[in-house]
Amino acid sequence: MTDLVVAKFGGTSVADFDAMNRSADVVLTDPTTRLVVLSASAGITNLLVALAEGLEATERFARLDAIRQIQFDILDRLQNPNVIREEIERLLENITTLAEAASLATSNALTDELVSHGELMSTLLFVEILRERGVQAQWFDVRKVMRTNDRFGRAEPDIAALSELCTLQLAPRLEEDMVITQGFIGSEAKGRTTTLGRGGSDYTAALLAEALNAKRVDIWTDVPGIYTTDPRIVPDARRIDEIAFEEAAEMATFGAKVLHPATLLPAVRSEIPVFVGSSKDPKAGGTMVCNKTENPPLFRALALRRNQTLVTLHSLNMLHSRGFLAEVFGILARHNISVDLITTSEVSIALTLDTTGSTSTGDTLLTQALLTELSSLCRVEVEEGLALVALIGNHLSRACGVGKEVFGVLEPFNIRMICYGASSYNLCFLVPGSESEKVVQKLHHNLFE
Ligand code: ADP
Ligand code: ASP
Ligand code: MG
To answer: What InterPro entries would the database entry show (predicted)?
Structure first.
């Protein structure tokens, strides 16, 4: 293991000139922080995604102006903006051209090319901020090392290629200077730009840390750590000072936006601790995600994942038959769908689709082709607008009274589906989306306050 720390700053931490400077302060307080991974400035990715959907001219120009405004507000406060003005102008021109192309015909590959510009611009600006503070920092195009497959919008990294390319291309630069690079984006074998799915910069940081054998990943965001639930939903949520990999991974998977769901995969694989803190208030401390924690509690946290779709498949043929589930799963696999939660009865199966790491391209998982194929086998019922609430904890399936404690307080709510027992780390259930925040607040009050 090297003494390298990889620091990642999210959108709000590079939102404007002041935020970038606060993030630069954070970088400079720890001399082992030599690789910095950045998101796009807050708001930019959403604007680029809108452009990629193909907009008519007026709408398009409004979005282009908004992007230019955010980036020029930062540029114009540099002592010497002209050093990178041309480069930023060139990227803005690219965006204009690509957005025009998208208004004629859009594609997932075009979307990824377009949205990648957010991270390209924020990293250029940040390098200049550091240079003006007398720090030697190199800008590095992460696409040189972040090799992925060509599943645009939600590409998967090629870990072996990444490791090899990092050793060849990135490690030697880190010997010389601090390196600033982009989160979220990558490139496939033919060199076309890909993205790792929305919020993917956390994942980039963890992947690079693994490839470079780093000693820690620091995720700097707008909250000073991981809380017992989203503090936006429950202001009384408490910070968790130390949490085990498995628990944090469950939280991320089940919707705690503070970490991209895949962030902890490389960290767990290579036992790299992950710290989460606030770039606005670094002194407030944060959460350390590590291998083991002292006295893990029965109830750790609540997570909420919105916009869940429940698919129920009914067939009398299922009764006493064999291989029905295999057939259903075969169809789902052919359509590249991974199942998330599942419950079965004698004649029906209810399942939710895995939306982990939503795509940058906004593709729907439930296509007409999939529904047609499933309908040839059984009656298909689709319910939208649900939310998944997950209670994360330890040894949950071995403890007594968990069901009563959880569902006792949820009496006024309709619980649409429950999954319990497969994992000792979680108990999950679906509720109507409109009631999900109330459910989380009520449960948090009873279990954590
Ligand atoms: P960034 O842009 O830095 O990646 P995100 O918006 O993706 O930041 O993630 C930070 C947000 O995650 C917080 O503002 C908070 O609302 C949300 N969040 C959800 N669940 C949790 C949790 N359990 N603990 C802390 N923050 C959470
Ligand atoms: N900028 C990308 C997004 O908004 C990636 C990230 O912020 O992690 O999804
Ligand atoms: Mg994020």
So the answer is: AceGlu_kinase-like_sf, ACT-like_dom_sf, ACT_Aspartokinase, ACT_dom, AKiii-LysC-EC, Asp/Glu/Uridylate_kinase, Asp_kin_monofn, Asp_kinase
Beta strands in 216-258 (DSSP E): 216-221, 242-244
For the chain, which domains are there? 5-222 (3.40.1160.10), 300-448 (3.30.2130.10)
Name the more confident of 403 and 440.
Answer: 440
Max distance between CA atoms of the chain, in angstroms, equals 75
Q: What Rg value do the Cα atoms of the chain yield, rounded? A: 23
* pTM (predicted TM-score): 0.94
Q: Give per-residue pLDDT as tens, 74-103.
A: 999 999 999 999 999 999 999 999 999 999
C-alpha dist (Å) from residue 411 to 401, 407, 442 = 16, 7, 11
Cβ(45) to ligand 2 under 6 A? yes
Report the separation in Å between the CA atom of 191 and the middle of ligand 3, taken as the mean of its atom positions: 26
Residue 154, annotated as binding a ligand: no
Q: Rounded distance, CA 223 to CA 226, Å?
A: 8
Tell me the helix, strand and coil percentages in the chain, rounded to 5: 45, 25, 35
DSSP class of residue 106 equals: -
Angle, CA 378 vertex, CA 377 and CA 383 arms, to 5°: 130
Is 230's C-beta closer than 6 angstroms to any atom of ligand 1? yes
Of all protein residues, the one whose alpha carbon is nearest to atom 8 of ligand 2 is: 199
